[in-house]
């Protein structure tokens, strides 16, 4: 199915397949299997071996990397992460994304912008994707704490990585990968100067975390607080569109 074009008129093919495991996670899954086999076959400690074997399956599941059908429309800003929308607020962009950068971009400025925060639990896919097509202008890593990623101050105090992508029309889109209570490493797949496509894999965060997306001014959220989103597929906003959308939990 990879690379196949589909549309909303029924063209294309939809088949289920077992998600691939990202190479970053294979070593952890194989190591967990090796330890569990030692307890089962060598030490004969089944009370420890079987739970470890089950944990091995969980490790592989955490690093799953399913294919996504990415909408092909330059006006759309896509979700960079799977998870739950926990905050939609007007806040100033982080200082690392505000001013001019080394590659000549203007940054996001200091005026408040719509920030959409997406919380990823350990059960979500943790591969992050670019919300738009363009050129990577900045990848800024900030060491920090490992507080609950669902807290508002995690954006300023936790270990995090800021990414700025400049669209072909000059519009800058910023997003931040934030480590959480369990997460201990943010793994980038990109660097400044790289060209990325909307929905392209750009990194991962290990074991529970959060991603903040800063929409351009004049663009409102197309998702609701409490909504679940899918990386590379769910539309967070459409450039220049700001309308009220209401939802009811049921």
Automatic annotation (TrEMBL):
Keywords linked to the UniProt accession: Cell membrane, Decarboxylase, Lipid biosynthesis, Lipid metabolism, Lyase, Membrane, Phospholipid biosynthesis, Phospholipid metabolism, Pyruvate, Transmembrane, Transmembrane helix, Zymogen
Enzyme active site: 209
Reaction catalysis annotation: a 1,2-diacyl-sn-glycero-3-phospho-L-serine + H(+) = a 1,2-diacyl-sn-glycero-3-phosphoethanolamine + CO2
Domain of life: Bacteria
Topology with respect to the bilayer: Peripheral membrane protein
Key word Zinc-finger present: no
PTM-bearing positions, type Pyruvic acid (Ser): 209
Single biological process term from Gene Ontology: phosphatidylethanolamine biosynthetic process
Main location: membrane
Cofactor or coenzyme needed: pyruvate
Transmembrane segments: 30-63
A GO molecular function held by the record: phosphatidylserine decarboxylase activity
Cofactor note: Binds 1 pyruvoyl group covalently per subunit.
Top-rank EC class of the record's enzyme: lyase
UniProt-listed Pfam families: PS_Dcarbxylase
Family indicated by similarity: Belongs to the phosphatidylserine decarboxylase family. PSD-A subfamily.
Subunit structure and binding partners: Heterodimer of a large membrane-associated beta subunit and a small pyruvoyl-containing alpha subunit.
Name of the protein in its database record: Phosphatidylserine decarboxylase proenzyme
């Amino acid at each position: 199915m990879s690379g196949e074009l589909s549309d909303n008129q029924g063209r294309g093919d939809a088949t289920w397949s077992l998600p691939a495991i990202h190479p970053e996670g294979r070593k952890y899954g194989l190591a967990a299997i090796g330890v569990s086999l030692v307890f089962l076959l060598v030490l004969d400690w089944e009370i420890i071996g079987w739970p470890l074997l089950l944990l091995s399956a969980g490790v592989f599941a955490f690093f799953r990397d399913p294919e996504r059908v990415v909408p092909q429309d330059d006006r759309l800003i896509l979700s960079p992460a799977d998870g739950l929308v926990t905050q939609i607020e007007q806040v100033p962009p982080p200082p690392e994304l505000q001013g001019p950068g080394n590659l000549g971009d203007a940054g996001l400025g200091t005026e408040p912008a719509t920030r959409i925060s997406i919380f990823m639990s350990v059960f979500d896919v943790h591969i992050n994707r670019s919300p738009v097509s363009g050129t990577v202008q900045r990848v800024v890593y900030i060491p920090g704490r490992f507080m609950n990623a669902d807290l508002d101050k995690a954006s300023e105090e936790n270990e995090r990585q800021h990414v700025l992508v400049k669209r072909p029309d000059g519009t800058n889109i910023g997003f931040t990968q934030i480590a959480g209570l369990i997460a201990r490493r943010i793994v980038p797949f990109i660097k400044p100067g790289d060209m990325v496509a909307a929905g392209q894999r750009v990194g991962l965060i290990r074991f529970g975390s959060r991603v903040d997306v800063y929409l351009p001014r004049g663009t409102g959220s197309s998702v609701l607080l409490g909504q679940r989103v899918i990386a590379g597929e769910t539309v967070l906003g459409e450039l220049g569109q700001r309308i009220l959308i209401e939802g009811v939990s049921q």
